[in-house]
Specification:
It comes from Hypocryptadius cinnamomeus. It holds the Pfam family WW. Involved in pre-mRNA splicing as a component of the spliceosome. May play a role in cross-intron bridging of U1 and U2 snRNPs in the mammalian A complex. The chain has helices spanning about 25-30, 35-80, 85-120, 125-140, 170-175, and strands at about 10, 15-20, 140-145, 150-155, 160, 180-185, 190-195. It is α+β, with helices and mostly antiparallel strands. The strands form three sheets. It has a three-stranded antiparallel beta sheet with strand order 3-4-5. The protein has a two-stranded antiparallel ribbon with strand order 1-2.
Length: about 200
Amino acid sequence: ADYWKSQPKKFCDYCKCWIADNRPSIEFHERGKNHKENVAKRISEIKKKSLEKAKEEENMSKEFAAMEEAAMKAYQEDMKRLGIKPDDVGSSSTQSKTQSNTVETKAKKEKKEKKEKKEKKKKTPQDASMPSKIETKEWVQGLSPEGYTYYYNTKTGESQWEKPKGFQGNSQNSQTGAEWVEGVTEDGHTYYYNTQTG
């Protein structure tokens, strides 16, 4: 052979040693006295640990039970000192919860009724006509260079040929025939717009 090939090896966790990774070597090792003793030792360690863990959990549960019992005794003694029966405490707390819930629902109903009344007051005929008045104030009348009448919305900047609904015209300008139109911006400032020149 021109080259050397290493034999695969296997590590035995029980014995902490390496053995050849082939069936005869593994079987020979596992039949050995040391290996069997190490396996038995590992199994006994696992059993011992599991028993210790079970005992520890049992002790913990006993301690918790003792703590709960002591807390319950202290609670009952406190209730006796205050002159309250322990049974009354649970029922009174549930009663107070239900009472608070009914109070909350009544308050919510009252708020809803108030809101509905306010909304009804807002929806009166006078209020319905108000937006159209405001809208008509936003529109101004102008003349195009060709002499045609158009309408300009000072709020939106929109212009149209048709007369807006509810538009009453600019009384000052119609009397004087002036080319300047007075307008109001969104923030309440007054400005003047020339209908001839734009």
